[in-house]
UniProtKB/TrEMBL annotation:
Native species: Mus caroli (Ryukyu mouse)
Localization annotation: Endoplasmic reticulum lumen
One function term, GO molecular function aspect: peptidyl-prolyl cis-trans isomerase activity
Protein name: peptidylprolyl isomerase
GO BP: aorta morphogenesis; collagen fibril organization; extracellular matrix assembly; in utero embryonic development; wound healing
Signal sequence segment: 1-31
Sequence ranges assigned to domain PPIase FKBP-type in this UniProt record: 61-149, 173-261, 285-373, 398-485
Keyword Signal: yes
Record key words, sorted: Calcium, Endoplasmic reticulum, Glycoprotein, Isomerase, Metal-binding, Repeat, Rotamase, Signal
Residue ranges, compositional bias (Basic and acidic residues): 555-581
First-level EC class: isomerase
Function: PPIases accelerate the folding of proteins during protein synthesis.
Domain of life, per lineage: Eukaryota
All residue ranges annotated as the EF-hand domain in the record: 504-531, 541-576
Amino acid sequence: MFLVGSSSHTLHGLRILPLLLLLQTSERGLGRASPAGAPLEDVVIERYHIPRACPREVQMGDFVRYHYNGTFEDGKKFDSSYDRSTLVAIIVGVGRLITGMDRGLMGMCVNERRRLIVPPHLGYGSIGVAGLIPPDATLYFDVVLLDVWNKADTVQSTILLRPPYCPRMVQNSDFVRYHYNGTLLDGTAFDSSYSRGGTYDTYIGSGWLIKGMDQGLLGMCPGEKRKIIIPPFLAYGEKGYGTVIPPQASLVFYVLLLDVHNPKDTVQLETLELPQGCVRRAVAGDFMRYHYNGSLMDGTLFDSSYSRNHTYNTYVGQGYIIPGMDQGLQGACIGERRRITVPPHLAYGENGTGDKIPGSAVLIFDVHVIDFHNPADPVEIKTLSRPPENCNETSKIGDFIRYHYNCSLMDGTRLFSSHDYEAPQEITLGANKVIEGLDRGLQGMCVGERRQLIVPPHLAHGENGARGVPGSAVLLFEVELVSREDGLPTGYLFVWYQDPSTSLFEDMDLNKDGEVPPEEFSSFIKAQVNEGKGRLMPGQDPDKTISDMFQNQDRNQDGKITAEELKLKSDEDQERVHEEL
């Protein structure tokens, strides 16, 4: 609209009507308001729409883009940018517009609407524009301002939301993933990553973005929201872009940064909680059980072992999991909580995986290590206390023992306790009545001794676990030996302290009828025990043991033992040797 030029120029087709600055020196001197009915001395400005927010106002030397309708006092239109579908784009206050328009645009806000009444001496004066604007014409303009910028402008960044935790800020050469809405300065939308259903992914400072966006993204944190205003000379300049971004347009981007990493990044570790007394750290080859929450850098949760109510179980450093997690789990302690930040080149790379982990995504794992072990681990035994008196005899295979125990997982989850049953646990060591690791840990103990046992799963319940015990779980026992009795040799239910009588059958046959029924047999064995001449297998019901002994001797199962049937275990073993020979 209204560029300075010759008065011979006319409006033809879609050409812009020249705005001439043809002012007489005497006209420039007018400065007082005219009395009622007298000619106007200055531009009359009616601000009939003022936007609520006005971050900047037009000043002299600014570049503006605006639409207008130009009419005479009688309402007849003489020019309109709308008819040409082309905004006026020009610098104000430097003599390129008629003086009335220069003055009328000063102080305008973007999206403001004004009606300007321009007296002749601030318009085309006594000359007018041949065939279009008569001499001494008062001009009426309806103007809406759509854009304003200055060559001295820089990128304007406004933080709309900043997360409380900022692990890193965007730097040059970083790779970023972000969502954005792009608008012109008047709010007209021209593009949005949300409408395409995917983030915009690119390198910073490598020339892949317009310069203003390269600058505006610097210093952002993952999860941060920014408003970035970019002047056209740092955007698409005089040419614009396609049909959506006109020439000389300022651009406004509302940006949400989701992710940032650098191709040189390594796995980042942050210890959130470290238990006291960490004596062992995980190494490659260990088998680990851990819980985790996995999220993207903006906090979006993509997976959680807690939601499945089951730990993730795997070997560490053996390539069963993504390389970044393989690295991040090494060096952890049992019970430790750590945050592992994995760059995409050590996770799922450019392609991502599934519908929850996008390409080039940084992954954050908050990990709680429940336990770990190595397939070569033995039972770990730690003595907590021993009785003050000398201990000459310790528990061994075959002994019958009574002990109290508490059993838990390594994270402290309580599993079992003998104290719940108001009586100690009773077993014969080496009889395969308890898990192998516990059996081993109970050997070599003194009565009254307390131990802590750490039993790896291959010496406990293995990969499958047991009722109440997860698969591949390391078990923690605290045990106290309450009593110990020497066991009997394998295969024996009763042993004599001295050589038995040579008239053993006669001694058993209490009524001397040549037969020993169960009652006589039981009475005889119990008498030997009471008199200290022998002992039954410990840990068994005496009546049950004696009944088993009777069944062994009643070889024809007729309910009585004869002299021919009665044999000592040693005699049976000797006969078996002869049979084998």
